[in-house]
Amino acid sequence: MKYQVLGPVAAILGDRPVPLGGPKPRAVLAALLSQANQFVSEQRLYSLVWGDRPPATVRGRLQICVSGLRKLLGRRCGAPLAVLFTRHRQTPIVRGSRLRRVR
């Protein structure tokens, strides 16, 4: 899997683009790719994706985007995508270990 972040955000498997959905899933993927191999707090993702004015439902929207990306990209790679929600000091974080494969 290759990821394109200059221009429209894209995931490419072989020579075919993977349909990522609308602008928010693409923005979440771009945010995770820009922070590859680092822990990213929910608050940081809110800021990167929604800016200074996230909607009241931002947590649910983020979870939907991450869940959709996990299913879509994991299925295409033949293995579950390692984007994990975990708790550290009561703050959910996201880690993208498979995102190391950025080229």
UniProtKB/TrEMBL annotation:
Keyword DNA-binding among UniProt keywords:
yes
Keywords (A to Z) from UniProt: DNA-binding
One Gene Ontology BP term is: phosphorelay signal transduction system
Q: Does the keyword Secreted apply?
A: no
Against Pfam families, the record matches this protein to: Trans_reg_C
Q: Which GO terms describe its molecular function?
A: DNA binding
Which superkingdom heads the taxonomic lineage of this protein's source? Bacteria
| Record-annotated OmpR/PhoB-type domain positions | 15-99
PANTHER family documented for this protein: TRANSCRIPTIONAL REGULATOR REDD, TRANSCRIPTIONAL REGULATOR REDD-RELATED
What is the protein name for this chain? Answer: OmpR/PhoB-type domain-containing protein
Taxonomic source organism: Amycolatopsis vastitatis
